[in-house]
Write a structure and sequence with these properties.
The structure is a single chain. It contains 2 helices and 6 strands, in the order E-E-H-E-E-E-H-E. The strands form 2 sheets. It has a 4-stranded antiparallel sheet. A two-stranded antiparallel ribbon has the order 2-6. It has one domain: Ferrous iron transport protein A (FeoA) (SH3 type barrels), CATH 2.30.30. The protein is of the alpha+beta class.
């Protein structure tokens, strides 16, 4: 470990909300935020940690997302709870 506290053996996980993902690029869901009801709602729609997701298109404040071989419309607010 260096004097500044950096250890190259420790891997840092960088996450960003699905709302900011590039269209057409497959991503892996790393975390789902929100209250328990919101997490359950997203899980029921197919969004699970470790699952693959990709943004198909963005229309206004809504996203069309491919998840588990289905296309789902989600609001930007919900897409910000899905971390990739």
């Amino acid at each position: 470990m260096s004097a500044r506290g950096y250890n190259p053996r420790i891997r840092r996980v960088v996450m960003m909300p699905l709302a900011y993902a590039e269209v057409g690029q497959p991503q892996i869901i790393k975390k789902i935020g929100g209250n328990p009801e919101m997490k359950k709602h997203l899980e029921d729609m197919g969004f699970t940690v470790g699952g693959e997701v990709s943004v198909v298109s963005s229309i206004g404040e809504n996203l069309i997302v491919k998840v588990k071989e289905s296309r789902v419309a989600v609001s930007e607010e919900l897409a910000k709870k899905i971390m990739i």
